[in-house]
Amino acid sequence: MPAYWFTCPECGAHVAVDEGARDRLLSAGCAVCGVPVGPAAFTESNTFGTSA
Ligand SMILES: [Zn+2]
């Protein structure tokens, strides 16, 4: 499953999100402060949820 780190450029919120949550943030903005966010606020994570 694709996973991303979201870092809010406004309030600094830093959370791991899956693709669905990423889409919601892109359309609705930061869940904490409500600022609009773009793709640049996300970093792909290849290790989310793995124990390798
Ligand atoms: Zn925020």
TrEMBL record:
It comes from the Archaea. It comes from Haloarcula rubra. InterPro entries: DUF7560. This is Zinc ribbon domain-containing protein. The lineage of its organism: Archaea, Methanobacteriati, Methanobacteriota, Stenosarchaea group, Halobacteria.
